[in-house]
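Forwarding the complex inputs:
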Amino acid sequence: MTLPEGNPETNSAVAAAPAERQWSAQPHPSPVSPTFDEITRRRAKEIIARYPVARSALLPLLHLVQSVEGFVSQDGIRFCAETLELTTAEVSAVATFYTMYKRTPCGEHLVSVCTNTLCAALGGDAIYERLKAKLGIGHEETVGEPGTTGSLTLEHAECLAACDLAPVIQVNYEYYDNQSVASAEALVDALRRGEKPPPTRGAPLTDLRTVELELAGFTDDPVAAAAAVAGPSAAVETLRGVQLAAERGWVAPAMPAEHPALPPLPEK
Amino acid sequence: MSTPENTGPGPDPLTPVLTRRWTAERSWTLESYEELDGYQALRTALAAHPDQLITLVKDSGLRGRGGAGFPTGMKWSFIPQGSSGPGAKPKYLVINADEGEPGTCKDIPTMMADPHSLIEGCIITSYAIRANFCAIYVRGEALHPIRRLRAAVAEAYAKGYLGTDILGSGFDLDIVVHAGAGAYICGEETALLDSLEGRRGQPRLKPPFPATAGLYASPTVVNNVETIASVPAIVAGGSAWFREMGSEKSPGPKIYSVSGHVVRPGQYEAPMGITLRRLLELAGGMKDGIPLKFWTPGGSSTPMFTAEHLDVPLDFEGAAGAGSMLGTTAVQVFNETVSVPWAVMKWTEFYKHESCGKCTPCREGTYWLEQILERMVHGEGTASDIETMLDICDNILGRSFCALGDGATSPITSGIKYFRQEFLDLVAQQPVVARPQQLADMERAERTISTSLSGASA
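Prediction (whole assembly, two chains):
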């Protein structure tokens, strides 16, 4: 077998090399930065200070960006990149990997319907289909002007780890347990009217931006934050085992009265 | 149905240890926790030598509650210690609270109801492995647990249980509650570490294992919430007490999360080795009396069981012996109204969505498996689909980068193993649907295959 002379590039009639382009550096600080005010910048520094290595702050920083913008825009990506001295490509790679970072403006509320197998079998699929039809939107789409009162973004979610309370919906990551098509419709109706029905487990409902700020580790209102911590958590289902044990008098074997002596140091 | 009674000499049918504080008034507060003996184990632990604690946990036989069941004390003992070489690096404790395996719902109620048990466990564990920084990686959607944990961490700092020179011991520890951002793969320990380092959550090649090169390439222990929340009780009760529950190789209590078509779904903490028959009795039996069809012993990544497995002891050995895995003891119960091919399709959609894309078998395999199953469920299956799926599963299992790919095959292979006829019937009852585009593709493929590869163009 004989090989042709040269290679495809040199044999080509037209030059294969792309035209050279001059890339200009971003002016520093970049013009987008004013979106993120002084308090946001200070919070970003606080987040970084929590970790032994700065880059660990990237996920909370992206939550912080969402609390400011309602989603992660290209500006938000540049803000994170500047803060952590990363490239925008490195930040984009992370922002696009995770489901909770939204790349388009979101509503006041995020409604997540679990459609994983168990919830779906118990009615989650029917709930999601009904809400889609009712609101006229699909996955990660928004009804209403993003950010305004009563606007909401719908999504179908993977397992929300509340299977004993299936089917579940989360609004801004607060749990609405044991839902039905009717209760889910009533829930979104109320949200659309600007009401904030209390979740079955979690804090009094706020909005997506407030919650994103909380995920980043901050709160604007200490009184509300204390009330949020005290929000209900123990559903009937959660406590069934403990209560059944109490009713029947079942207990774990009794612990010794004093802490038992620890085993001796192993010989080296 | 007969009422379950404690007949033998063993422990009671339910043994609340991790769940024992859940009904207390404001159970999540430090005040409530301390009233119920909280932070007493910490004092005992800090008075001991760290290696004594590692030996204690080894002796207790505690095994990881996140699914794999690795012996916890052994994991801790792998952390290199010493003032030179790898032991000189900082050590880290990372808590895997990225609960998301379908069916699993034990860590979230634990962190909401009793966050201090986890925090006390973190302090004891960090002291044992000589870590001064601990991160609790909680899935982002678990907002209320994050809130409760952060409030509890703040209380612990204020009381001197965290920070510098804890209770005058000279031991320092900082805990950060880190919110994830929605990626099931981050429950895989090395993907979790990458995510915690601010990267895409994709698994790392092992070795090196996290014990030698984990967070920031330093020695790291990664443990599940339920595992670490068990530690204070082991210090307080001793290894012999812990072993009064469960079996020789799978000792201790375990939270069984019963969900699905049962009368009373919920969290039931029992000695390891309880059977589904017993759990169903406790949960009031099958809902509306409709018979059991299939169930998972520990989440969707554990091969499904059927009514013939009612008496399989649900501990690590029992579940494995019957061809599945204990996993996270997420017992999802499905009755006869649920189609197995449909359920398998839903689970496969999940794995396809959550596949991180790093390795080809998982990324491409789940992509094709989902399409085959959706086609089948929507009325266009073919007789060869079952064998094609098994073939794809065979090319994923053991060939993917991490356990997500392996787990993705579990519902399919076990579903076909126990319900092959249902898949065949589904395909058989479907009208033959003309699919001109696909037929054209097949013809083209056949032409290509029959072309001899002589080097010349056909």
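Chain B has 18 helices and nine strands.
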